[in-house]
Design goal:
Distance between the termini: 20 Å
Number of helices: 13
Structural class: mainly alpha
Strand content: under 5%
Radius of gyration: 19 Å
Number of domains: 1
Helix content: over 70%
Largest sheet: none
Order of helices and strands: HHHHHHHHHHHHH
């Protein structure tokens, strides 16, 4: 990758790392359900506008839209809801580290759900190291049942859903990535919006005007712009290089949480993050390959 691609990768990691920071701020004014709905609604409007302006075509088949609905559940509605609820009980930095387990789940699931992405020795070793790091993060909190423990499990559940969505996306290769993104968030909005208005519509009148800026930033910058940047990086640098953002997101979130939210950085969080990063590096394989060469 060139200097420009590395700068884009760093900017993307800051955006996605900042999403955990913004969610923590938004939870002061909104319920998790309203945060997820607002974020997806803003992203749906922006992505559909981008599709229209660039002249791309949305699918017309009802069967295809049913598949997009499932994709929206796996990639937006369920993981956004689990992760946002989880942040009620754990810090933004810990949330981002647990979310980085997504590739670990993807490697395991791909072995069973695909024909061409089977486990290799280095992938299996990377998964084991990464899962040990996850245990280091969450094990002390399950000595007794607590909301913090359930919050951690919720975030891991969100990461697991992202992994399922990543594999399911393989079936949409005939569509432009931005069309897939616009279609899935649109389906998610159709499900979430009526529920949110019924359950929490009255609470919207009590929200500070400035709080809406957080929701807009989550939807526009951390979802729509981030999607477009990620797709651009895949196009110019390849999916493997773009996936390096996984290593950088927790660092951005940890720094934002520490300096702005004044979150305490615990030793087990650092140890768990390092182990997860080592696991991801082993799965990625490039560092190991260069050392052998």
């Amino acid at each position: 990758m060139g200097r420009q691609e590395w700068l884009l990768l760093l900017f993307l990691s800051l955006i996605w790392g900042g999403s955990f920071f913004l969610i923590k701020i938004a939870l002061e004014d909104f319920s998790p359900l309203l945060i997820v709905t607002g974020r997806i609604l803003v992203a749906a409007i922006a992505l559909n506008a981008f599709v229209y302006m660039t002249g791309k075509k949305m699918p017309t088949s009802l069967a295809t839209w049913r598949r997009f609905m499932l994709m929206g559940l796996l990639n937006n509605l369920i993981p956004f809801s689990l992760i946002t609820w989880g942040q009620l009980h754990i810090s933004s930095s810990l949330t981002s580290i647990l979310n980085a387990t997504n590739p670990l789940f993807t490697v395991l699931l791909a072995h069973f759900l695909t024909q061409d992405e089977k486990l290799t020795i280095n992938r299996l070793l990377g998964v084991v190291i990464g899962l040990i790091g996850t245990v280091v993060l969450i094990a002390p909190d399950f000595q007794q049942i607590s909301l913090e423990g359930w919050g951690q499990l919720a975030v891991l559940g969100g990461a697991f859903c992202y992994s399922l969505a990543g594999i399911y996306t393989r079936g949409f290769r005939q569509f432009a990535p931005v069309v897939v993104a616009a279609s899935t968030v649109s389906c998610s909005v159709l499900v979430l919006l009526p529920i949110s208005l019924i359950v929490g519509g009255a609470d919207l009148l009590k929200v500070r005007a400035t709080a809406w800026l957080t929701i807009f930033t989550l939807g526009f910058l951390c979802t729509e712009i981030a999607y477009l940047l990620y797709f651009h990086l895949i196009a110019v640098s390849g999916a493997t290089n773009a996936a390096l953002v996984t290593f950088l997101i927790p660092i951005s979130a940890l720094l934002l949480g520490f300096f702005i939210l004044h979150e305490r950085i615990e030793g087990k969080a650092v140890a768990g993050m390092i182990l997860i990063f080592v696991g991801l590096a082993v799965i990625d394989g490039r560092l190991w390959f260069r050392q052998k060469v």
